[in-house]
Amino acid sequence: MSEKKLRRKKWQSTLFFIVIIIVMLLSTFITNFNYMHSMMSIPSAFQWIFSNLLITEESLQRLPTILTKLNETIFMSIAASTTAAAVSLFLGVMGSKTTKMNNIVSVIARVIASFSRNIPVVAWALILLLSFGQNSVTGYLALFVGSVGFLTRAFIESIDEADQSSVEALTATGATYFQIVNKAVIPQSLPQIISWTLFMIETNIRSATLVGILTGTGIGYSFDLYYKSMDYNTVALITFSIVITVIIIELLSNYIRKVII
């Protein structure tokens, strides 16, 4: 690389960091955010956490109820993720450049994915709350719709990366569209599809806690209930249970990914 190009790259990097700093300072000014005050508040915040969020013998007595609500959240997340994966696989096949039936269907599939993906899960929960009320169906649908958008986009990219040689070989032998998809495209993309589905399950377990606060279901409802009653010891137990569950799910997902990929 010539000296002129190096100099230009250096100036571009410097300009980029200057712009970032200006944007940060401007955002701080607009929002009246005080960095110094925030930094000085950290010690007192940790002091409050270690003083109040303690698991006690009394809070442990509520563990069976907490685990029941946690299981409800886990299974709701798995159900939403897996059913969304089935719908997303169909939309992914329709939206992919490799397997699209025609341009109109492809555009429709991509629009559906973009629309559902760009609205946060919390917003979907609030929207659906008006129609279905506070129940597990609302939580399931909020996670389902959000998952469809994300997984469709991921599946489209996975299918687009499939090797074209097998597709061309089957096409040359006169195979039908569904035979090509079933024999050439899906087998190649299946490891990535499973991996993305597992990732969605992990994400939905985290999101389901917040959705549960809004819909009055699962572990989120328990968290909100004890937090509002200022029972911080039980809140600590719930938080710890969620963290352990997410870690276990993530370890299982990583193991499955190593096996299939």
What does this structure look like?
- This protein has 11 helices and no strands.
- Helix 4 crosses helix 10, helix 5 crosses helix 7 and helix 9 runs parallel beside helix 10 (218-228).
- The model has no long low-confidence stretch (mean pLDDT 84).
- It starts with a helix and ends with a helix.
- The chain has helices spanning 3-31, 35-52, 57-60, 63-95, 103-117, 121-132, 136-160, 164-172, 177-215, 218-228, 232-260.
- With 261 residues, it is mainly α.
- The protein has 2 domains: 1-38; 57-260, MetI-like fold (Orthogonal Bundle), CATH 1.10.3720.10.
Q: How would you summarize the topology of this molecule?
A:
Elements: H1 3-31, H2 35-52, H3 57-60, H4 63-95, H5 103-117, H6 121-132, H7 136-160, H8 164-172, H9 177-215, H10 218-228, H11 232-260
Helix pairs in contact: 4-5, 4-7, 4-9, 4-10, 4-11, 5-7, 6-7, 6-9, 7-9, 8-9, 9-10, 9-11, 10-11
Short description:
With 261 residues, the protein is mainly α. It has 11 helices and no strands.
Distance between the ends: 38 Å
Order of helices and strands: HHHHHHHHHHH
* Total domain count: 2
CATH topology of the largest domain: MetI-like fold
Task: Supply the number of helical segments.
Answer: 11
Low-pLDDT residue intervals, each spanning 5 or more residues: none
Number of distinct beta strands: 0
